[in-house]
Amino acid sequence: MNIIGTWKAKKVGMFDEESGTVMRTIEEIMAMDETDEIIEVKQMLTITVVFSEGGKLEMRIVVPPEEVEAALADGAVIAEDGSTTMMEAEWKIENGEIFYNLGDEGEIDGEPIDPWIKADYDEDGCLVMTNLAFEKA
Prior knowledge:
mainly beta, eight-stranded antiparallel β-barrel, two-stranded antiparallel ribbon, 3 helices, globular
């Protein structure tokens, strides 16, 4: 599958006391009662990831209308679709696998952290990056 283009959030990993982290679909999340956690998760469903030629990755999120003024005051640039860039990173394909670099630095147990994180595809063909799964838009 060609990675270049826009990918939209399809699933979010949510903690479940019995099963640990479980990927929930948009439909499952939208049917849940409106708690503060669910409102935050629904906001995560507005995230898109744009993979560009040359190894650039841009993660965007829609700013809720009631937060636009504050976001602009903080220097955010908001596109016509109401989204703003929340993160830019690098991506690469190595041995047929997709990796992205969040710029993490430091050490764990004296060993340097590898900033490149492997993305996987799930059983539905969604691209999984940490606790979000994306489908090609």
